[in-house]
Design brief:
The chain is mainly α. The chain has 13 helices and no strands.
């Protein structure tokens, strides 16, 4: 579960070298996403399907653009031959996701493949040790905010699953604080703030 939030959005920026075209890159990304969606201990099923992982791979390539991947040396062979996580491979790569239009297209593309709220809420619940209801309320509130899309994409790429909470964009601070106060119990909020 701990790798779920980062893997969904970090995979946009995969980096290395090798060959392969647009369809091959989409397929390789989908396979990598599916692989990283598997729980580390194998004790529970992945929270997305293999078909959804393939769809996300296609969404990444169509949103970011094959040329952007290619210009950074990111190919199907590089993705398939990676030795670390997708997050480790993206470090230092610039595929233009800081552009609000690209970030929005990426968010929309992923959302067409999988309901982000239903995926992110259980992961947040497990990682922060808060109730499912609190996590669902919080993620639901974020998903409803326009500024969340770019912030989430930019915060999660190469940085870590909870970076959007630890180092929020200043424009999102008020939203985050309001949602934390509304959705979490005082005990849950205290536990998070003491980390």
């Amino acid at each position: 579960m701990r790798r779920l939030i980062p893997f969904l959005l970090l995979t946009t920026m995969l980096g290395a070298c090798g060959g392969g075209g647009e369809a091959e890159l989409s397929d390789a990304l989908g396979a990598a996403i599916w692989q990283e969606a598997q729980p580390e201990d194998g004790s529970q099923p992945a929270v997305i399907t293999e078909a959804a992982a393939g769809c996300i791979g296609e969404a990444f390539v169509s949103s970011v653009g094959f040329e952007s991947f290619e210009s950074q040396g990111i190919t199907a062979d590089a993705v398939a031959g990676r030795t670390g996580t997708l997050a480790e491979l993206v470090e230092g790569k610039d595929l233009g996701v800081s552009d609000p239009e690209v970030a929005d297209a990426l968010y929309n593309g992923v959302q067409e493949c999988v309901d982000l709220q239903s995926v992110l809420a259980p992961a947040m619940s497990a990682e922060l040790e808060i109730s499912d209801e609190s996590a669902t309320c919080f993620i639901g509130g974020l998903v409803a905010e326009e500024g969340f899309r770019a912030t989430l994409v930019q915060s999660l790429i190469g940085t870590g699953s909870l970076d959007v909470l630890r180092n929020p964009d200043p424009t999102m601070m008020g939203t985050l604080l309001g949602l934390l106060n509304t959705c979490l119990s005082p005990e849950e909020l205290s536990k998070i703030l003491s980390r």
